[in-house]
């Protein structure tokens, strides 16, 4: 299959033309110490290379090969991360805004894009199936009830797998959504690798219409590289335009080249590499279970390591301990430690991790399950709240104010309040428990809100 975009850049460089085009470093700036290789690959939309948003030349060929690898009608490269894919996906599903049924396990990139597109989320809370220490799954029955109550909803939006690796049942959610004639769109930021672990594990294989896959998180891709994969042909035609609406007109070539190279690597050896990774991770999971670390229950990403410190040192001290063992975790805060392995981790990395986790005994302490997320009270649309003037106040003074951004205790958790939601007694209590010192609130609620009061 090959690497058409990478090959085109190599061919272009071999022609040694005098580069009177951007970028300004001209491929050899002495001032960019240590970035010599990056410079030689950092080109622009030249006739020899094609253009990302116009879908031409070797760039278009690289995307065609990606579509074939993922067995979908269209696969689009993003050098603007999964964030750009999420923006485009939301634009395609709800071009003129409107209601959307959304799992409350959601990244701020989606909340921000919803505000820009004037999408009004109808929240579905996660269930408790992952256990007391994890955020849980979006469940098909709850999605059905939300769609019954909001017949005009344009789509169902689900984040799966979540940061902990917890996978929601997209097959059941897609079947429920199909009864209402709406697509399921998935933030698959943490699951770009899933189809290479096991056939049928990816969200598009389970009936989702589109997925935003943050390739740089779990695959050998430079930061910012992602794919928007489209299974429902109806969305393919407008997809480039939707990406161009939000994307930079100067997408990074090194990032796109890394997607091109990774795609070929996945085709040739992806399944074998992930089979090996799964075995290494399984040994660490077993050691963690023996050490009394709690892991999420039910279907999860087999290569994500997420531990809750149910009765032992908290994430911060677990992080310090791991660093002392020569390991840098992805996240170590509050009740959790999260590690993101990839096939690029060596066997030496894994033996270090296995040793450290085996010795990571629970050391007494308070059992503290995750408290239930507060019930949202929405008084403004996310758009109104996010685009309004805001001020930061001490959390203790925020009662009765309207949140101006997603208020999160820390990234893995369900936000305590979303933009446009009231800081109620319940939210205040949760914010205090979570140790949130400040809250960004709307400075002057609109006349419309004051009338509603
Ligand atoms: C669940 C989720 N969605 C979306 C994003 C945004 O991805 P990116 O950083 O590739 O833009 C992230 C990033 O951490 C994420 O965790």
Task: Give a topology summary.
Layout: H1 4-14, H2 36-41, H3 57-70, E1 74-78, H4 81-93, E2 98-103, H5 108-117, E3 119-124, H6 140-149, E4 156-159, H7 170-179, E5 184-187, H8 194-197, E6 210-213, H9 215-218, E7 226-230, H10 239-246, H11 253-290, E8 305-308, H12 315-324, E9 331-333, E10 336-339, H13 347-358, H14 382-387, E11 390-394, H15 425-434, E12 438-442, H16 447-452
Parallel strand pairs: 2-3, 2-4, 4-5, 5-6
Antiparallel strand pairs: 1-7, 6-7, 8-10, 9-10, 11-12
The structure holds pyridoxal-5'-phosphate (PLP).
Pyridoxal-5'-phosphate (PLP) binds next to α4.
Molecular structure report:
β2 (98-103), α5 (108-117) and β3 form a beta-alpha-beta unit. This protein folds into three domains: 4-266, Aspartate Aminotransferase, domain 2 (3-Layer(aba) Sandwich), CATH 3.40.640.10; 271-358, Aspartate Aminotransferase, domain 1 (Alpha-Beta Complex); 382-452, Ornithine Decarboxylase, Chain A, domain 4. Mean pLDDT is 93; it is low at 363-367. It has 16 helices and twelve strands. The strands form three sheets. A seven-stranded mixed β-sheet has the order 1-7-6-5-4-2-3, with helices on both faces. It has helices at residues 4-14, 36-41, 57-70, 81-93, 108-117, 140-149, 170-179, 194-197, 215-218, 239-246, 253-290, 315-324, 347-358, 382-387, 425-434, 447-452; strands at residues 74-78, 98-103, 119-124, 156-159, 184-187, 210-213, 226-230, 305-308, 331-333, 336-339, 390-394, 438-442. The structure holds pyridoxal-5'-phosphate.
